[in-house]
Amino acid sequence: MKITQALVLSLVLFLFACTTVQETNRRALHIVSQEQLNQLSKEEFEQLKKESKLSNNSEYHKRIEAVIGVLSEVISLDSNQYNFQWDYILIKDDEIVNAFALPGGQIGIYTGLFKVALTEADLAVVIGHEMAHVMARHGGERMSQQLLAYGGSFLLSIRSEDTSPERQRQLMSAYGLGSKLGFLLPYSRVHEKEADRLGLYYMTQAGYDPRVAIPFWQRMSEEKSIVMPELLSTHPSDHNRIAHLKLILEELGLPYE
Ligand SMILES: [Zn+2]
Question: 139: pLDDT confidence band, cut at 50, 70 and 90?
Fold first, then answer.
């Protein structure tokens, strides 16, 4: 890319693409509209529903619905802005300790998670974390970063509200370069920390005790089955995560003893 092109590109990005993560005031780059992300997420979610073995464990469903219900109420004012469609699937696999969220608000939870999430509050730690990724639009930011790496000329044409199948395919193929299941890529440490922080705030507002997060993540780090990306792998170490969580609890006026 020539220097002039690069200048034009950075100006365009600056003018149209920079937004602020509301709760933490961090500047973030977004070149894909939330409308497009919602559409992509909807399609991805339908695909996942078809391809996954779903669980009908009514006790687990009851707990998940309770947690998503209160958390989405706490954050509903902010989420209306982007029209997130909170929904979930429970995937039957007791060996996988994991959860994830698509940028449109659809959450996936593996039954294996319940080996570590013993109470509703434990579940709120994970679901709050996932909803925080959605609310802070981390998926879209990560996608923007990948597209940025992909090439400048493509970028200049991409920020439109065009949700035609053709445009969706273009976006998907660009996004799919790095991975097959792009939405499930690990997040950066910045995103993980932000999601931990926001998640604890949400669960506190919803009436759960956020201090359960410490023993929860400790159990998580001792779990011997497959703990997949998203929940552990991107953190520098479990020790750091727990130290960071303790700081947040102090900010919340609920220090962990
Ligand atoms: Zn995360």
Answer: confident
- Distance, in Å, from the CA atom of 238 to the CA atom of 247, rounded to the nearest integer, reads 14
How remote is the CA of residue 195 from the centroid of ligand 1, in Å? 6
Domain-embedded: residue 19: no
Q: What is the 240 CA–ligand 1 centroid distance (Å)? A: 15
Measured in Å, residue 8 CA sits from the centre of ligand 1 at: 34
Instruction: Quickly count helices (H) and strands (E) in the chain.
Output: 11, 7
108 in a domain, yes or no? yes
196 belongs to the catalytic site: yes
Q: Give me the DSSP letters along 153-186.
A: HHHHTT-S----HHHHHHHHHHHTTS-SSGGGSP
Name which of 49-63, 133-147, 156-170, 190-204 the model is least confident about.
156-170
Domain presence at residue 159: no
Of these ranges, 2-16, 46-60, 178-192, the one predicted with the greatest mean pLDDT is 46-60
Inside any domain, residue 190: yes
Q: In whole angstroms, give the CA distance from residue 82 to residue 190.
A: 22
**What is the C-alpha to C-alpha distance for residues 125 and 105, in angstroms, rounded to an integer?**
16
Q: How many domains does the chain have?
A: 1
* 207 has pLDDT over 80: yes
Active-site residue, selected from the candidate residues 122, 130, 141, 230:
130
How far, CA to CA in Å, does 60 sit from each of 55, 112, 243?
9, 11, 30
Record the pTM. Answer: 0.81
